[in-house]
C-alpha cells in the first residue's frame, strides 16, 4: 500500500462550489504539506503543518484552508472554487530526524474547476 | 531567498544516448539539493540528494548528479537512457536549517526518450 494517499484522484467541479481534498499517510511523520503544481511553474506550497496544532500558511494560501484532523490526516479545502485553481495538487510528508531529510509525495489530485 | 533554474523545459534524446539535465540555483545560505522524478499520473519520487560529503551522488537506476558550489549547479546526468526514463525531472533546494517548508522547486524538465 502507498505511504501517502490522496482522495479523490480526479475531480471536476463548478465555480463557487466547496471542495475538499484529503490526504492520509502511514509513514508516521509529523510534518505534512499541500502543494499545487501548474505547468511551467513547478510546485508551490499552499499550507504546511508540523503537528495537529501547528498549521502555517505557505506561499499561495489565499482561497484555501486546511484541517489537520490527526497526525495521519491533512485535508485541503477550497471554500469557493474558481477556474484558476485548476491544477494538480500534491500532499507530502517529511522526515527531519535520523539523517533522513526526505520528503514523500502522494500521487496527486487533478482538480478542474469549470 | 533562494531560487532554482532549470533552463530546459523539454529534452528529447534517443534511447541509449547520454543526457544531462541542467539545474542552477542561487541562495544566500548553504543548501541541500535534490532531484525528483515524476512519471505520468504519479507524484514526485526522490531520485537523489546531496546533503554533504562527496559532491558526486548516484541513484540506483544509473543517474548521477554533481554538486558544484562555485558554479552553483547540480546537473543530472545519465550515460545511457532507456525508454522508461521518460518522465519529468525536478530540481529542488532547501536551506540546511528550517525544514521542507522552505524548499524551492525548479520548473521541471521533461525528458523524452525516443526509440
Summarize the structure.
The complex is a heterodimer of chains A (114) and B (115). Chain A is an all-beta fold.
Fraction of residues in helix of chain A = under 10%
Order of helices and strands of chain A: EEEEEEEEEEE
Q: Report the portion of residues of chain B in β strands.
A: over 45%
Q: Judging from the principal axes of the Cα atoms, what is the shape of chain B?
A: globular
Low-confidence stretches of chain A: none
Q: What is the averaged pLDDT score of chain A?
A: 93
Question: Your description of this structure?
Answer:
The complex is a heterodimer of chains A (114) and B (115). Chain A has 114 residues and is mainly beta. Helices cover 0% and strands 60% of the residues of chain A. The radius of gyration of chain A is 14 Å and the shape is globular. The relative contact order of chain A is 0.33. The model of chain A has no long low-confidence stretch (mean pLDDT 93). With 115 residues, chain B is mainly β. The model of chain B has no long low-confidence stretch (mean pLDDT 93). At the A-B interface, strand 5, strand 9 and strand 10 of A face strand 6 of B.
Supply database-style keywords.
heterodimer, A: 114 residues, mainly beta, seven-stranded mixed sheet, B: mainly beta, six-stranded mixed sheet, four-stranded antiparallel sheet
Amino acid at each position: 500500500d502507498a505511504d501517502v494517499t490522496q482522495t479523490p484522484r480526479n475531480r471536476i467541479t463548478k465555480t463557487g462550489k466547496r471542495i475538499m481534498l484529503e490526504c492520509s499517510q502511514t509513514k508516521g511523520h509529523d510534518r505534512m504539506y499541500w502543494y499545487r503544481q501548474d505547468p511551467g511553474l513547478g510546485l508551490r506550497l499552499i499550507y504546511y503543518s508540523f503537528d495537529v496544532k501547528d498549521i502555517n500558511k505557505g506561499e499561495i494560501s489565499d482561497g484555501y484552508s486546511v484541517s489537520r484532523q490527526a497526525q495521519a490526516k491533512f485535508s485541503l479545502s477550497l471554500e469557493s472554487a474558481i477556474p484558476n485553481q485548476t491544477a494538480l495538487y500534491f500532499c507530502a510528508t517529511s522526515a527531519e530526524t535520523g539523517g533522513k531529510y526526505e520528503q514523500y509525495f502522494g500521487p496527486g489530485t487533478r482538480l478542474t474547476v469549470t | 531567498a533562494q531560487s532554482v533554474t532549470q533552463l530546459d523545459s523539454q529534452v528529447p534524446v534517443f534511447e541509449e544516448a547520454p543526457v544531462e539535465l541542467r539545474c542552477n540555483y542561487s541562495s544566500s545560505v548553504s543548501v541541500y539539493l535534490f532531484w525528483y522524478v515524476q512519471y505520468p499520473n504519479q507524484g514526485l519520487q526522490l531520485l537523489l540528494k546531496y546533503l554533504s560529503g562527496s559532491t558526486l551522488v548516484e541513484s540506483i537506476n544509473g543517474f548521477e548528479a554533481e554538486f558544484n558550489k562555485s558554479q552553483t549547479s547540480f546537473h543530472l546526468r545519465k550515460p545511457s537512457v532507456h525508454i522508461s526514463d521518460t518522465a519529468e525531472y525536478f530540481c529542488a533546494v532547501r536551506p540546511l536549517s528550517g525544514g521542507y517548508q522552505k524548499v524551492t522547486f525548479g520548473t521541471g524538465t521533461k525528458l523524452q526518450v525516443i526509440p
